[in-house]
Each structure stands twice: as C-alpha cells, then as structure tokens.
Amino acid sequence: MTARQKQPVLGILGGGQLARMLALAAAPLGVNTLVVDSAADACAGQVAPLRLADWSDFAALEKFAAEVDVVTFDFENVPADTAHWLAERVAVFPNPRALAVAQDRLAEKTLFRECGLQTPAFEAVDTREGLDRALAKIDAPSILKTRRLGYDGKGQFRIKQLSDADAAWETLGANAHGLILEAFVPFKRELSVLAVRSRDGDFRVWPLTQNWHTDGVLSMSLAPAPEVGALQSRAEALARTLAEHLDYVGVFALELFVKDGELLGNEMAPRVHNSGHWTIEGAITSQFENHVRAVLGLPLGDTSASGFSAMFNWIGVLPDAAPVLRAIDGHWHDYGKQSRPGRKVGHATVCAQDAKTLAARVGEIARVLKREEQAAPALRALR
Ligand code: AMP
C-alpha cells in the first residue's frame, strides 16, 4: 500500500461568506483551507482555520505562503502589491494582473471594449473641472463612481440633473484613486454570467442569471434567466474572450445590463459571486466547487442547471429560517455574522423542476416571511 499524499492546502485571502462557502466546497475534494483576514470574527473562521493579518503584514503573509499550496481570493480589493508579492512565493489564481484590472472600473471598462463588450458611455474624472467636461459629453442622468474600492452601490453618486454636480463632487471628489462618470443606463434587465476557466484552459459557463438590486445591493436572483435566447451564447463568447485575454484561472462573474436586446458590461468580479450562490443546490457543480477545482488544477465539473432556482439575499438581519426549511427543495444559508444594516448575513435558495412550481414555492415563502416586495420582480419574470 502506498502512503496517502499530503492533502493540498488552499489559502484564501479574505474571510467572509465567500471564503466560508469555498472552504465548505473544498472539504469533500480532500482540500484543506487556510484563511487570512484582519478581523478575528471573520465568518469563514467558523469553518476553516483563520490567520489574523492585514494586507501589509508581510511577516504573517510569509508564514501563510509557506503553509499553503495555492492562494485565491474571497475579496478582490487585496492590494495589487500584496498579490504580486505572494505570487513570487506561491501559485496565485486568478493572477494578480486580472485582479488589478478588475479593481479599477476604468481599466475594466476599457478592457471590456477591447474584447468587444459594449459598456455605458464613460469618462475618467480627476478634478471638479474634469467632472464638468465629462458631464458635457455624457450629460445627466449619469452616475459618478469611485474607480476603486466601490462595491454593492458604495462609492457612487447618482447625478439626476446637471445641477447635482456640486453635491456629487462634495461626496466623492476627495477620493484619492480617481473617479469615473458613467451614463445611467435605463436597462430592461440585469443579467450576470458566471464562468470558470481551468489551469489548462478548459472554459465553462453556467446558464445566465437574472438579478434584481435594491439600493445597489443584490436582492434576488433567478436562474436560468428566462427567455435569454441568443444572449446566452453571446455572453459566453464575451466571457471566454475576457478570460483568455487575462489568462484567467478560476470563477468570475460579469455583471451585464440588457438594453435594446444588447449586452452592456457593468463590472467584472474576479471571484465567486453572490449571483452564483444558486449553483450550490441548483447546478450540477457549484461555482465554489469549480473554483476550487480550477485553482488546484483539477478537472472542471458540469455547469448545467439541474432545474430552476431562485435566491433571496438576506441583508441586515436574517428572517425566520423555518418557512425555507419547510419548503420542498428550500435551502438555508446562515453566514454566522452579526446583524448590521446593509450587511449580507445569509441567503436562501429555492429550487424546482419547472418555473410554475418554483413560482409557487417562492410566492409562499415570500408571503409567510412578508418579503412579497423582494420577491415580486422575480415572480413576474417567472410568469
Ligand atoms: P455596481 O456597484 O457598479 O455593480 O452597481 C450596483 C448597481 O447599481 C447595479 O447592479 C445597477 O443596478 C446599478 N447601476 C450601476 N451602474 C449603473 C448604470 N451605469 N446605469 C444604471 N444602473 C446602474
């Protein structure tokens, strides 16, 4: 009998719910995880060993690098310098260049266009006068966003009319990393495409997901997105072009607007993504498992949906779990976090073999939990 090989260790930078779900998916593959975060109560620490360090604590990161076989991210805003430093010591996926592009809305949108993905009109803004120049080109309504460190609608100011420019500048002008002005898109729907690329170039996508946001934060997702027609193959081709251009390894999400039947790129998340949580129960292979497989050089799993799925995001506080647990094919995810306004504290996924049954299950859960408003757009899309 040969001795069992040492189990690989996947290092994860950031210890939030994405790291937690990655760790849970890694375990059955025989992959151990080690998480780094600066917060002692980071919720991934409840399911995986946690090292406390911030992104500039190179002594702690040196020890971490020596303990792991591969490094990946739960958090895309790890400084590019830290990612490069780690990549000199250990395999890092996705590569630091892909991370750097996705960290900067200007670089990201420029790349989208180079790869054939249209975007809302945009202009870089560095000064108050620059904002006026950009507004003269783009006009209102538009959105002023920080180029870096913005997510979930944070670091954004909606310019409804040109006279809002002063207020927008007062709110965001002090940002040291520069700003971007984007045309406001009166989109018909929001979709995301989740894709995965392996170390040897195998590329797969899950069916498109339709998403609804409240105050810039994901509220509900539905998959497969109904009636997408040719948008599925179009999104797939664009995601592949981007992934190959960046030599990307792992899962990523492209957030897309649909306007006049065309796809416009909003942003790219260089990691597993909230709009892909339905894949845990609703796809043959989840985004978390395929990310672990990809970064460790294992074969990828089937990304087909196994039926129809809807995901409720729980923001701020968790509702009562019982109505979801009682529902047929209802699945509860508590991230183990303290309640806080605006914080993602959990989600629930409901699955069914057909859209009509899914609508009935989602409608019943929404009614009992008094979440009718949250579920209404998804229920309309299911009819
Ligand atoms: P973001 O943080 O850029 O993903 O924005 C969060 C949400 O704000 C998006 O999912 C959209 O619902 C909305 N949003 C962002 N940018 C635009 C835009 N240019 N036009 C219309 N809505 C937008």
TrEMBL record:
Domain ATP-grasp: 109-296
Catalysed reactions, semicolon-separated: 5-amino-1-(5-phospho-beta-D-ribosyl)imidazole + hydrogencarbonate + ATP = 5-carboxyamino-1-(5-phospho-D-ribosyl)imidazole + ADP + phosphate + 2 H(+)
EC numbers, comma separated: 6.3.4.18
InterPro entries according to UniProt: ATP-grasp, ATP-grasp_carboxylate-amine, ATP_grasp_subdomain_1, PreATP-grasp_dom_sf, PurK, PurK_C, PurT/PurK_preATP-grasp, Rudment_hybrid_motif
PROSITE patterns registered for this protein in UniProt: ATP_GRASP
Entry annotated with the keyword Transcription regulation: no
Alphabetic keyword roster: ATP-binding, Ligase, Nucleotide-binding, Purine biosynthesis
Pathway: Purine metabolism; IMP biosynthesis via de novo pathway; 5-amino-1-(5-phospho-D-ribosyl)imidazole-4-carboxylate from 5-amino-1-(5-phospho-D-ribosyl)imidazole (N5-CAIR route): step 1/2
Enzyme class name: ligase
HAMAP family, per database record: PurK
Membership in a protein family: Belongs to the PurK/PurT family.
Official protein name in the record: N5-carboxyaminoimidazole ribonucleotide synthase
